[in-house]
Design brief:
This protein is of the alpha/beta class and about 375 residues long. The protein has 15 helices and five strands. The chain has two domains: about 200 residues, P-loop containing nucleotide triphosphate hydrolases (Rossmann fold), CATH 3.40.50; about 90 residues, no CATH class.
Length: about 375
């Protein structure tokens, strides 16, 4: 007989959204929040049979590993910047729109910021205009395009078409393989499908894979500008240390850098790690930990079980939210596996952080 937690897992186990395809993006946009389930006491857990206990523990691991998006000060500020940039999206089609660049070090939630903001845009467009355009095409308000290492002009066009599931037909009718289409054909296909689906926002993720000092990188930069010229779309670029990688000056040097168009068109959206220096920073870090600890399902969870270790958690993660959530995921797993059913100093000491956090703190 299926127990309640096995049924919950069947519906809400780890979801493998493939955001780089429209079906996966649509599933992400329309996914309902996982429903929280009852927290059992130790006595109630002891009364479960072996299968039910295993399913309950697995359901808790899935739940604990997937906290809701928290409105941190970084996310709130980024959304404010993106709202200002999107004000240009209301311009007529003959006018250029601005773009945003979410530029920061790794582990600070850049992609989360971009996808959560884009989800709001997607839902708003659907509510106002419906799922289909006037000519019957599927409306896709947002496209999410992650780049690969060594990204090229042709590769970007291919990834755009793959997101939309474009058949890549030419004027002669037959379906063409992406590798057999010319760059100009791929650009034409990309512009056509973006216009047909009335896309308003395109996210280009992992832009740090492009070397803007190399000829291929300059070519990619020029291509992105040409797409921005051709499409009534707002672009949000996401990457690691893009200013240092010469994205804004497009790899130009000296006086030429003054004429870089991207620097005039793009607005930088920095994301900083949490700092506990000063009252405001310490309070923001404490609020984050309090929100995360309320999410966890553990039999002996207590208010303050994370907050008590606020300084140590900051030391081990350097205030980076990706490292923090990794550490808390693992601590919660250990709390279940060891029977501690709460997060203690010993549990946190045993829980591993990612390699970058280990390196910076000098921990094993």
């Amino acid at each position: 007989m299926t127990n309640a937690w096995a049924a919950w897992l069947a519906d809400y186990d780890t979801v493998g959204y493939q955001l780089a395809r429209k079906a996966g993006w649509d599933a992400f946009v329309n996914a309902a929040p996982r429903p929280r389930f009852e927290v059992l006491s130790r006595a109630q857990m002891a009364a479960l049979d072996e299968d039910a206990r295993a399913d309950y523990d697995e359901a808790r691991r899935v739940w604990n590993a997937n906290p809701p998006t928290i409105k941190t000060q970084q996310l709130t500020r980024a959304f404010e910047i993106l709202d200002q940039v999107m004000a240009s999206a209301r311009r007529d089609g003959d006018k250029l729109r601005g773009s945003a660049v979410i530029d920061a070090e790794p582990g600070l939630g850049k992609t989360t910021i971009a996808t959560r903001y884009a989800r709001q845009v997607h839902r708003r467009e659907y509510r106002r205009y419906g799922p289909y355009t006037a000519d019957g095409s599927q409306r896709l308000p947002v496209a999410f395009i992650p780049l690969n290492a060594g990204a090229t002009l042709k590769g970007i066009n291919q990834q755009i078409l793959e997101f939309y599931g474009h058949p890549q037909k030419d004027n002669h009718g037959p379906v063409r393989r992406p590798t057999r289409s010319t760059r100009s054909q791929l650009t034409e296909f990309a512009v056509d499908v973006v216009m047909s689906c009335q896309t308003k926002l395109i996210i280009i993720d992992d832009l740090h894979f492009v070397d803007f000092r190399h000829s291929n990188g300059i070519e990619v930069s020029n291509h992105l500008k040409s797409l921005a010229n051709a499409l009534p779309v707002t672009f949000v670029y996401v990457g690691v240390n893009l200013a240092a990688k010469r994205f804004f000056d497009e790899g130009l040097a000296g006086e030429q850098a003054v004429y870089a168009q991207m620097s005039r068109r793009a607005t930088r959206c920095p994301v900083a790690p949490f700092s506990i220096e000063g009252d405001a920073g310490a309070r923001a870090w404490s609020d984050l930990l309090t929100t995360l600890e309320k999410h966890l399902i553990l039999a002996d969870a207590q208010p303050g079980m994370l907050l008590t270790h606020a300084k140590e958690l900051h030391r081990r993660t350097q205030g980076r939210i990706a490292s923090l959530t990794n550490l808390i995921d693992r601590a919660a797993h250990l709390a279940i596996a060891t029977g501690a059913e709460t997060i203690t100093g010993d549990i946190l000491e045993t829980a591993l952080v990612d390699n970058a956090a280990q390196h910076l703190t000098g921990t094993a």
